[in-house]
Specification:
Blueprint: H1 8-23, H2 26-44, H3 56-69, H4 73-86, H5 92-103
Helix pairs in contact: 1-2, 1-3, 2-3, 3-4, 4-5
């Protein structure tokens, strides 16, 4: 796998989360996290044709990484599994799931 492809909006929220985390701006960090979460949740809603999330599985992986950084490991694992169900092959979620499940033993 040479590259990952993601929709611009979830990637922007992910970068904001990382930036605000690094700057210690917790309020803005949480706001970016919620925006990423809400945007990704919109992709689950099949009946909202006006708001299509492209590369949904990668957006899920970004959200799950943020959940890991928030210490919500079980929630992160669930989101990685959602990503994997959408694209079972050639998905970084496979590696993350193995990593998280081996760490819990």
């Amino acid at each position: 796998m040479n590259c990952a492809v993601v929709d611009a909006r979830p990637f922007l929220h992910y970068l904001q989360y990382l930036t605000f985390r690094g700057l210690g701006l917790r309020h803005k960090q949480i706001q970016a996290f919620r925006s990423l979460r809400d945007h990704t949740a919109d992709g689950v809603m099949q009946n909202q044709m006006f708001h299509k999330v492209f590369h949904f599985e990668t957006a899920c992986n970004l959200l799950a990484h943020c959940l890991e950084m928030e210490g919500q490991i079980d929630d992160a694992l669930g989101v990685y599994l959602t990503s994997q169900s959408g694209m079972p092959r050639n998905n970084a979620a496979n590696w993350h799931i193995r990593r998280l499940t081996s760490a819990q033993r």
